[in-house]
């Protein structure tokens, strides 16, 4: 009997989320060697990119008088403002140079609509539109996903929450993630929220 295929989903290993980038995740670069190594254990490897137009509503610079970290209402939902980051087709949006992308079957982009942000790799923050990832997995009858990448307390967290809502068996490889930690307890809260909805949190050494 053939076991069902599972997918490794590598989240946002882009220059702007690494030290020296526009929205650096502390020690985000440390996950790249593991992301490279773990790909060999999976038949299917997918990746995501935060992929904003220059006029994106999550950029503080697009709201006169506002600063990164401020909160505003954007098209009816609360939005934290960020530095300009991951602008489509710029160096900051590119995958990190040391990230091995040769085995990635498909890249999913998020955050394209200027009026709404998308932390999750499945849906925008208001669940209005899909990125295509859910349909991609469904077409291939993939029910088991493994997540790693940046940032643990935003994109990885919201991806795990949506994955559970979609009924996917969801594992988060913690040593393959780092958090932004805008608020001191954001990472702990993210871990609690993911656990509460049934995501399994593990370390890479626990993978078979
Ligand atoms: C992210 C903040 C802003 C993420 C994206 O992918 O975690 N965080 N945009
Ligand atoms: Zn973003």
Structure description:
The model has no long low-confidence stretch (mean pLDDT 96). The radius of gyration is 16 Å and the shape is globular. The chain starts with 5 loop residues before the first strand and ends in a 6-residue tail after the last strand. It has one domain (6-55, 84-206): Isochorismatase-like (Rossmann fold), CATH 3.40.50.850. It has a six-stranded parallel beta sheet with strand order 5-2-1-6-7-8. The protein is an alpha/beta fold and 208 residues long. The protein has helices at 32-38, 133-139, 152-165, 186-196, and strands spanning 6-11, 44-50, 71-74, 77-80, 104-110, 144-150, 169-178, 200-202. Zinc ion is lined by residues 50, 52, 58, 82, 85-86, 111.
Per-chain topology:
Layout: E1 6-11, H1 32-38, E2 44-50, E3 71-74, E4 77-80, E5 104-110, H2 133-139, E6 144-150, H3 152-165, E7 169-178, H4 186-196, E8 200-202
Parallel strand pairs: 1-2, 1-6, 2-5, 6-7, 7-8
Antiparallel strand pairs: 3-4
The structure holds pyrazine-2-carboxylic acid and zinc ion (ZN).
């Amino acid at each position: 009997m053939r076991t069902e295929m599972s997918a490794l989903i590598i989240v946002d290993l882009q220059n702007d989320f690494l030290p020296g980038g526009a929205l650096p995740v502390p020690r985000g670069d440390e996950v790249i060697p593991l992301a490279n190594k773990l790909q060999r254990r999976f038949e299917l490897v997918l990746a995501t990119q935060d992929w904003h137009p220059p006029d994106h509503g999550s950029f503080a610079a697009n709201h006169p008088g506002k600063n990164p970290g401020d909160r505003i209402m954007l098209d009816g939902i609360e939005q934290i403002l960020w530095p300009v980051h991951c602008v489509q087709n710029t160096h900051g949006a590119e995958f990190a140079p040391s990230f091995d992308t040769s085995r990635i079957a498909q890249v999913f982009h998020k955050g394209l609509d200027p009026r709404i942000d998308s932390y999750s790799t499945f849906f925008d923050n208001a669940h209005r539109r899909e990125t295509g990832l859910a349909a991609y997995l469904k077409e291939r009858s993939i029910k088991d996903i493994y997540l790693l990448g940046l940032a643990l307390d935003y994109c990885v967290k919201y991806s795990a929450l949506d994955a559970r809502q979609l009924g996917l068996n969801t594992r988060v490889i913690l040593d393959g993630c780092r958090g932004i930690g805008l608020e001191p307890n954001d990472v702990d809260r993210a871990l609690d929220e993911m656990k509460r909805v049934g995501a399994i949190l593990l370390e890479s050494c626990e993978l078979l």
